[in-house]
Design brief:
The chain has 14 helices and 13 strands. It is an alpha+beta fold and 539 residues long. The strands form 3 sheets. Strands 4, 5, 6, 7, 8, 9, 11, 12 and 13 form a 9-stranded antiparallel β-sheet that branches. A two-stranded antiparallel sheet has the order 1-2. Helix 3 packs across helix 7 and helix 7 runs antiparallel to helix 13.
Length: 539
């Protein structure tokens, strides 16, 4: 082969980097020397002046400046790294703690409060009688405790203490000290009454905390499922690159066969051109497969977020777990029951329905009239000193009882009725969404079952297709050596073989991913991955 027109393709095949980490594939095609007369007779191509600086292409293999390492990971190792370092999961793990603090804040609504009131007055007023003093000085301190009740009422315990002095000449005690003990209860009887209404915010916060736990579990499930998918896609990308590199080797072998037949004057020189064209096509497929492998590797590194495997480093991740294909006998009814019982989305929807029911009950209560019962029990004590007044309070000689009833009935009550109807509609909407979610889950289970069975059949068909195309390719090569076929026909058979092998890789990978989808659809991803999920109650 002495035609200088073949030189560009030969140079392109001299050095071909591959995506197997730092390994490179070097073509051993000999480049025929070019004579000066051939160069003078070669056609020339006029080029326009370049507006950008040109890049010089080297045909020698670059010397790596750093050594690239390989890390072999099993599927279990990949999951463990993702559970420890995945950023999305780390963010979701904070949500239960936030919800727990919100629940604690709502529970604090029933904590007792210490109250104190201090009053001082100094009055100088004209009077119409000598029986009333015109000057009065009073200092009162009222410490107390207010205790909210789960019935919706409030209990208050106060200890009023005061010292009063005036210029009334008829006052027996001047100054006079007063020490009382007061117990008061304020309890709504209709609107706002009952533990169901008083505790509604705590109940909602509790269910929201449960939802946060479920959503964190769901995020862990999604992370594991995404890691599994990325793991198998990376394994498929490596196999796909191996298929394309093997195809490139076959085109090189065909190019050698074509060259030998042309040099032996047993075939026309066009056979070499056909072989070179096939090699160029295969080279493009290798480059594309190499780029896809890099992207799949970065995808898995991002999900793991392992500091030992940074996404920007060229460290190679090699999946070690083998792909297995089994003809599974799946019970659709049992799988749907499992999904209905274990899918966190349905549990989340049920908790949302409960919260809507609490809203309905509370808004129904708010439509009732406001009837409030007030009761006060007071023990009075008076004396010329604090000790005397306290002693009199202890004897309980002077006791007061006060009881009152307050009624408030809104006219029309349109706002409360509107809120009640709104709560009913919200609950109806939530019930509809839950039913739609359940229907969607049943469909996902059935789709996953069908996909597994379909991909198993695809694997069987692809394996048979590979075997048949291998025989076809070998037959085409034999007939080419006998001069009965052209390079184009051999390359066509080779392309069919490579496509069949690529389809087998795709079918086996999709079978693995279909199993992941079925585990996710039935809510058994964590169990299938042997991960025990136990919510941790935070302080």
């Amino acid at each position: 082969m002495n035609d200088p027109r073949h030189l560009p393709i030969l140079l392109a095949l001299v050095t071909i980097p591959l995506a197997s980490g730092c390994s490179f594939f070097r073509s051993e095609l000999p480049v025929a020397p070019i004579r000066q007369d051939q160069l003078r007779s070669a056609p020339t191509l006029e080029l326009q002046p370049a507006t950008q600086p040109t890049t010089q292409v080297t045909t020698t293999r670059p010397i790596p400046t750093t050594q690239v390492t390989e890390v072999h990971l099993s599927l279990a190792d990949t999951r463990n790294r993702a559970l420890r370092n995945n950023l999305e999961l780390a963010s979701s793990l904070i949500d239960p703690g936030v919800s727990q603090q919100a629940l604690s804040a709502e529970e604090a609504a029933f904590d007792a409060s210490f109250t104190t009131r201090v009053d001082y007055s100094n009055l100088d007023q004209p009077t119409a009688s000598r029986l009333v003093g015109s000057q009065l000085e009073n200092l009162s301190v009222t410490p107390g405790i207010s205790i909210p009740l789960h019935t919706g009422g409030t209990v208050s315990i106060d200890v009023p203490m005061s010292r009063s002095k005036n210029n009334n000449e008829f006052s027996e005690l001047n100054p006079a000290y007063e020490s009382d003990l007061s117990l008061s209860v304020r309890q709504p009887l209709l609107r706002g009454a009952g533990a169901e209404y008083a505790d509604r915010r705590i109940q909602i916060a509790f269910y929201q905390q449960e939802q946060a736990e479920l959503r964190t579990k769901l995020e862990a499930t999604r992370v594991i499922a995404n890691v599994d998918r990325a793991f198998w896609r990376l394994a498929a990308a490596r196999r796909e690159l191996d298929v394309r590199v093997a195809g490139l080797d076959l085109t090189r072998a065909q190019l050698e066969r074509a060259r030998r037949r042309v040099n032996a004057l047993q075939a026309a020189e066009i056979e070499i051109t056909r072989a070179e064209s096939g090699a160029a096509d295969q080279l493009e497929l290798v480059i594309t497969a190499e780029n896809n492998l890099k992207q799949r590797q970065r995808e898995l590194k991002q999900l793991m977020n392992d500091p030992a495997l940074p996404i920007e480093e060229p460290t190679i991740v090699v999946p070690e777990s083998p792909m297995t294909t089994l003809d599974l006998n799946l019970d659709r009814v049992a799988l749907i029951k499992s999904a209905t019982a274990q899918r966190t989305e349905l549990m989340d929807a049920e908790l949302q329905v409960i919260q809507r029911s609490i809203d309905v009950a509370s808004t129904r209560n708010e439509m009732l009239p406001l009837v409030t019962l007030d009761y006060t029990y007071n023990i009075n004590g008076l004396g010329p000193s604090f000790d005397d007044s306290i002693d009199e309070t202890g004897r309980m000689d002077y006791v007061d009882h006060r009881i009152g009833l307050q009624v408030e009935i809104p006219i029309g009550n349109r706002a409360a009725r509107a809120r009640y109807r709104q709560a009913l509609l919200n609950r109806l909407k939530t019930l509809t969404d839950r039913n739609a979610q359940a229907l969607q889950i049943r469909r996902e289970v059935l789709d996953a079952v069908d996909t597994i069975q379909t991909n198993f059949q695809r694997v069987q068909a692809a394996r048979q297709r590979v075997a048949l195309n291998q025989r076809l390719y070998e037959g085409e090569v034999r007939q080419f050596n006998q001069g009965q076929r052209t390079s184009t026909e051999v390359l066509d058979a080779q392309v069919k073989l490579q496509d069949a092998e690529s389809s087998l890789v795709s079918a086996e990978t999709e079978y693995q991913i279909a199993q992941i989808d079925l585990a996710f659809a039935t809510g058994t991803t964590l169990g299938q991955a042997k991960i025990a999920w136990t919510p941790v109650m935070r302080p």
